[in-house]
Amino acid sequence: MSKSARNSIEVEVRTAYVEAESDPAEDRYVFAYTITIRNTGGTGARLISRHWLITDANGDVQEVFGEGVVGQQPFLRPGEDFVYSSGTALPTPVGTMQGSYRMQSETGEQFDAPIAPFSLALPRILH
How far apart are CA 81 and CA 11, in angstroms? Predict the structure, then answer.
């Protein structure tokens, strides 16, 4: 979570294994994630870009940079949410993702909204 009096963005993540698009025999495990971005601050902010670190169970890291999310750069007024879904494929049945969103407040100030690490895992594989 990113917190300050003016700029405060909360990020919540839900994940799911996508069995229909996965092929374990070919080391392909597909995961979907739905993210809720909530502006809990006192000023509006636009999501400018994203930065992801995707780590598989072998310790291999894929770094992803890009403008916006799902082709959009949403502007969130105080109290507003933006929800989107996307996905990623891993060569292992377990991995993690973490990162940040680069935000720009309506006053022009840029700041990062961190995305805490979250697990990508086949159902019932982790205890």
Answer: 10
Burial class (CB in 10 A: 0-12, 13-18, 19+), 78: middle
Q: Taking CA 32 as the corner, what is the angle to CA 34 and CA 7, rounded to the nearest 5 degrees?
A: 30
Distance CA 107, CA 51 (A): 23
**Over the stretch 62-120, which tens digit does the pLDDT of each residue have?**
999 999 999 999 999 999 999 999 999 999 999 999 999 999 999 999 999 999 999 99
**For residue 107, what is the DSSP state?**
T
- Ordered DSSP codes for 13-74: EEEEE-GGG-BGGGTBEEEEEEEEEEE-SSS-EEEEEEEEEEEETT--EEEEEEESBTTB--
First to last CA, the chain: 26
| Residue 125 pLDDT level (bands cut at 50, 70, 90) | confident
Q: Tokens 């009096």 sit at which residue?
A: 5
